[in-house]
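User: Structure please.
Assistant: Input sequence and predicted structure:
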Amino acid sequence: MLARLRGTIDDIGLDGVLVDVGGAGYLVQTSTRTRAALPSPGGLGTLLIETQIREDAITLFGFIDRAERDWFKLLTTVQGVGGKVALNLLSTVEPDRLAAAILSQDKALLSRADGVGPKLAVRLVTELKDKAALWAGGITQGKPSDRGAPIAIPDGIAPKDTTEDAISALVNLGYRRIEAAQAVAVASREAGVDLAAGDLIRAGLKVLAQ
């Protein structure tokens, strides 16, 4: 199975690129993010590849990094999300922000992507919320260098390990650590019960959005 292409970028189009590998030209569908990260035509580029095989076509989808490729695979597990719609989503929202959008149930942001209507946006946040929580927590694509020193969490809220996981997840999503810690503390107090890390991440995002 083809997993990677490295070759000369022959052409960059509106929805994909043509890659010359040893004289053979491969037409690869990509997101706008990936196209922007590739060199100009004539330069050497590398793409991670996912292949979709159908009765009438074999389509190559290319990604500039593992994060985008992994989210493509997650998105296409949702009914109604084919390769084209998944690329539209990745063109609209970067991978880390996509996790945040799903966790905070930001259906309006997801619906900005071509091919994503209200019903499909609901399906995305419903079916991918747990996987998005794992991603945000660094289990899928960890970024331990972003986590920083531990923040003291007041007594009377969620267990320390759970709150630290939630704080780290919000930091991985781009929030400052002090903001993340404050949001987690508020969310935990408002819940009045111990929350699992994924639920605490979602609650923290809602606090940050206020």
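Confidence is low (pLDDT under 50) at residues 139-159.
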